[in-house]
Fold this protein.
Amino acid sequence: MSNEVDIPCPECGHENSQRVAWVKANDELPCEQCGSAIALEDEKHLLVIEQATHNITKLRRSLARFRNYTPGTTRKRR
């Protein structure tokens, strides 16, 4: 799983894909299309990153449960 997030360029609107870990570790992302510097400390981008991280965690948990599921067994409800 790549753990990537799409960050729109405020200048041209291009969706720039980058790994979440890279985005968290850097302050700016150069736009792949127009070259503008996208400030990553912007609150909107941080919210997108946090939401993506949360969704990836949920997906990993679901996949782990799916891998451990045996047909015909009773599953515990949470």
